[in-house]
Fold this protein.
Amino acid sequence: MDISDEKLEKLRSAVATLDQISDKEKAGFINLVSRYLSVGAEQINWSKIQTPTDELLLPYETLPPSPQDPEEIKKLLDKLVVLKLNGGLGTTMGCTGPKSVIEVRDGFTFLDLIVIQIESLNKKYGCNVPLLLMNSFNTNEDTQKILEKYATTDIEIHTFNQSKYPRLVVDDFMPFPCKGRTGKDGWYPPGHGDVYQCLVNSGKLDMLLSMGKEYVFIANSDNLGATVDLQILNSIIQNQNEVCVEVTPKTLADVKGGTLISYDGKIQLLEIAQVPDEHVNEFKSIEKFKIFNTNNLWLNLNSIKRLVDGNALQMEIIPNPKEVDGVKVLQLETAYGAAVKFFDNAIGITVPRSRFLPVKATSDFLLVQSDLYTVVDGYVIRNEARVNLSNPSIDLGPEFKKVSDFLRRFKSIPSIVELNSLKVSGDVCFRSGVVLKGKVSITAKPGEKLEIPDGLVIDNKEINGPDDF
């Protein structure tokens, strides 16, 4: 027995004693660790990477138009279910609870906007598009309470939980909960690649198939651009694609995002964790890799069932080292986009940038709360007065990191329709009706508070104090 076998046997015995998780979760965890011990963190053979051909990567504008007849649209939508990944917390922006319940615009939360969008589709076409939420053990309880407010809406909402796995203590490769860490910090959700197995384990996949559903659209709950697109749905049904990945042109802000490549004649996603160290700069280049993954996926439900039942979804393992109170622990995770290569007739579609509008930080918050966007039927619509196709780049200092601090520093959100870039650092506050244009930099001197007065127009200017107004 080699050292890996010994580790695994000890781990298996320890995991068997953990009564906080199900037998299916125990089996899934041991399977993940076993694969990690045998293959490690897999890296790609760089010389075999090719640019996807036109047959594998389609421009959005070349897709056939979707039907105009409401009855035909109803038939399309009745085959669809929308699944939002709802396992994340709003901790990076200083919030507690599920990120999806942060108010992002006009008093609406991410979840409000998702529900309103689907409800308006169901009402308009008389269809039944259900909403599924994959929660984590961190978000499930709060989400269940929040969902009560949607009880009277014209939409079926179903939830299921992502797996709960024990963190591994690096020193002896034993489960953290076996060291007395039985609270939340002893466990982790193993990445959204877990979605396929959890759909099956929860019984939700069989439920959807019995309802006559054929396709699922999966996206992050914090991506405001990830809405149901009839043209994409129509195209993949016509062409019998088992999976479709939405990608969009890469900018310098997206250099760490996964990209779509052709490898051994099939498309697959390439993430930065798989890239050999000597090729990382090449991976980040926007000349060689011109597109990146939006994390919007369309998948055939029967295909998911076939692949899960056949244990075929062996996605690359992403080791995620952490430290908890001085103890080094390891989380083994997978990404759901990595499953693309296992599906037949897989394609990518290069979609407009408008389908990628995530809110990861308060700088994104500023964009979506500004006059750059409005909300119609739950959809966040870009202001046509904006001539530049790209959004402004926004860099807010640490004083703006938490949502509560961000809101306190803006009496109202400035107009940014004509803004190219904004950099703010120090103790800066904005009064009402401020207009920002061109390239703007605002810096408060250390120990001083800088207040931008009501109605001030700042056009291509650097401000370091009141004398610069």
About this structure: The CA atoms of residues 123 and 154 lie 7 Å apart. The two ends are 74 Å apart (CA to CA).
